[in-house]
Amino acid sequence: MSSETEKPDAKYRHDEDGGPDPEAHHGHGRGGMGQEVKRKEDRRFITGRGNYVDDIKKDGMLHCHVVRSPHAHAYVKSINKERALNVDGVVAVLTAEDLAEYDLATMPTLMDDTQDVLVQDKVKFQSQEVAAVIATDRYIAKDGADKVEVKYETLDAVVDARKALEPDAPLVRDDIEDNDSNHIFTWETGDKEATEKAFEDADVTVEQDMYYQRIHPAPIETCGCVADWDTANEKMTVHLTSQAPHAHRTLFSMVSGIPEHKVRIVSPDVGGGFGNKVPIYPGYVIAAAASYVIGQPVKWVEERSENIQTTHFARDYEMTGRVAATKDGIIQGIDVDVLADHGAYNAAAQPSKFPAGFFKIFTGSYDVPAAYCKLDAAYTNTAPGGIAYRCSFRVTEAVYLIERMVKVLSQELDMDPAEIRRKNFIPKEAFPYESATGWTYDSGDYERALDKALDAVDYDGLREEQQRRLDADDDKLLGIGFSTFTEIVGAGPGKQCDIAGVEMFDSAEIRVHPTGNATVRIGVQTQGQGHETTFAQIVAEELGLDVEDITVEHGDTDTDPYGLGTYASRSTPVGGAATAVAARKVREKAKSIAANELEVAEEDIVWDRSSGAFQVKGAPDRGVTMKEVAFASYTNSPANEEPGLEAVDYYDPPNMTFPFGAYVCVVEVDRETGEVDIRKFYALDDCGNRINPMVIEGQVHGGLAQGIATAMLEEVTFDDNGNVTAGDFMNYLLPTAMEIPHMDTDYTVTPSPHHPIGAKGVGESPTVGSPPAIVNAVVDAMAHAGVRHIDMPMTPDRVWSVLNEAGLTLDPAERFEFDAGETPADD
Ligand code: MCN
Ligand code: CUM
Predict the structure, then answer these.
(1) Cβ 750 vs Cβ 732: under 8 Å
(2) CA of 587 to the centre of ligand 2 (A)
(3) pLDDT, tens digit, 9 for 90 and up, residues 581-613
(4) CATH code, residues 314-435+442-490+656-805
(5) Could you confirm whether domain 53-155+222-270+277-310 is CATH 3.90.1170.50?
(6) Is the model's pTM score more than 0.85?
(7) Cα distances (Å, whole numbers) of residue 707 to 394, 711, 726, 766
(8) Ligand 2 atom nearest to CA at 278
(9) Are the C-beta atoms of 806 and 785 separated by less than 8 Å?
(10) What is the CATH number assigned to the segment(s) 10-30+505-651?
(11) Which residue ranges have biased composition labelled Basic and acidic residues (predicted)?
């Protein structure tokens, strides 16, 4: 696949003046590329004037509370609504039967499956939606829900993918015709024969099992909506916490049968998404159905435990990695086995299709000649999900696997983990690079990033300290861990995402008004990433306007151009590209108007990026600014141009972008308590040309916090009956500022050659890249005693057990200077 596929509007894609130089701080101070513009949206957030779904109040608005199953696996024998309906203020109680009347009993999952909106027959995971109570206020709805009487016949549950595949395991999906097992599909990628050959010929091979635990995105704002059926205009308006409003509009229309132009989705301010708000959930369908039936607006907002227990989880991959290498540490082949838990409904996508196919990036930043992966997926009695949590859709698991395996190999060969990386990096001259599993990496310079990282952390000094402390039998073990990962973001061209025939584009529309300010509407949707600022910066750069003169709007399907939304860090790679190209279309037209104003031929006009104005070639003192051109476009447009100054672009990217990073984590492991202290976390990210370094730093800080939490604290756990044992913030350990160490951020710039402004995405890199650096550091601290692996989350008890097994724990009797028999004197 060529990264230079010609597109119809190719002339706008590459900038005639070479494009912005984000390394340079531009003199004109308009807030263009590379400037640390303060986020425009923060004015309303820090003054308490954000507008989230739960802030929306409408006349006659009713509230919905969902009755959920206490059991993970059970038949629903009967539902009695009577007592609930007798509660003062309860307006309606809905069950699957009621929804079936409107053909709304089921809804599609993200991939190849249908999920009950309310349980029709059998509950398949704990807290699944069984009935819904609609009432005049939230508390009455909840009281009513307590009074709905549901009789269950319980069944044995299975919550572990491996056990689910045993022959006598409880069958989760007896609703699928002729289905007799919990196995969903097998997926293979790469060249099996070539990989087997590489293993036969190898000097050394290593193998390691690892489990990437189930975790859950936990946006501060849970999911919710306000559905409002307008009986007069037969129009459904849904305010929804959505990462992809247009895609949700299409889904809503398909599920409900309401024509798409009569569905309006508004995603107002979104209090974090992290992938949790990509899918649609039963609560949305219930609220919309209730509003349709009752004819009043209906609000549904989840509680925290409902969010953790029922909305999409992430990861849950059991992986076995094998690496074949020469005795000098040159990797010859990688072979991977995966067992994926997809929960009770297959919402996690077959990996042969986007998005889960991104696991194919498991050869990482290394020039690996042969690679093969076989993956099996299973149903269990757990909430559906598996793709999304700041993850780039299974890239997180792939990065974890390869970055851990490189460390394992370095231990087998007794080589320095930095050195072995350097030996295997794809050299910078090799880009665009074709990977063994079929990606075309656009650009990279991994060695420069690693060198900068080693220098910044004083790597040699750290190794010396490590040895010195070992020699002194120090109570704390020092460990140094690396992750030199490659990300893949910007979904993306259909061919590469393996979605047959579906091209993933995004869009931007720019209107420059007569007095020289502009409204920009985009198809992607911010959930905290700062698009209202950074997308304005792209336009400011391209049109020479002041960033303060540009308003960015998004999240309203009635007004914004159709887009596929924000996930997989695709906003900059795809939506940002659309914005730059739309701006260049505006500039192209503006040039013709400028020529008319200056009474010269268009060929004699040049765009001067530094002053943001058109000039007559060779006479820089004769020029017009974009503001002047804007006025002229409405008042004095030349004969060959329509009046007005606007453009729209639907950008269909020729390739994904491949950002990368070099992370170094330094830990101290307490031999007495098993506690891990992250002493240093250094993160170098290369996301190509940078739009706003401050926003990037914020993204990296937030993403690292989540990666650190993954490595150290978070896991959704179950007991054998399928009860969620970490279903609230008492038990699901979200970190606070106290648990997050100081972080050092850094960068290199390797522009994307196919992106109009050379930018790559960055939003997920820190979460994707950091966990293996931390695990590698903890393993490194214990490597001298032969420790090869420890699973996440690395809680003190787990670390202590590994220390203990390796003979590294401290004997308390040796530590304290009194004998066991001696008692301290009392005085
Ligand atoms: N940026 C930049 N220069 C670049 C690349 C990015 O200045 N070369 C800026 C962008 O303009 C944008 C921000 O950094 O303002 C993130 O851009 P990008 O990497 O394109 O990612 P998206 O905007 O598509 O955000 C999605 C990504 C994902 S998938 C998850 S999950 C996630 C994340 O962003 N969820 C978040 N970061 C989050 N941050 C917040 N606050 N809240 C979430 O829910
Ligand atoms: Cu993978 S979580 Mo984000 O892509 O919305």
Answers:
(1) no
(2) 33
(3) 999 999 999 999 999 999 999 999 999 988 889
(4) 3.30.365.10
(5) yes
(6) yes
(7) 14, 6, 19, 7
(8) 5
(9) yes
(10) 3.30.365.10
(11) 1-26
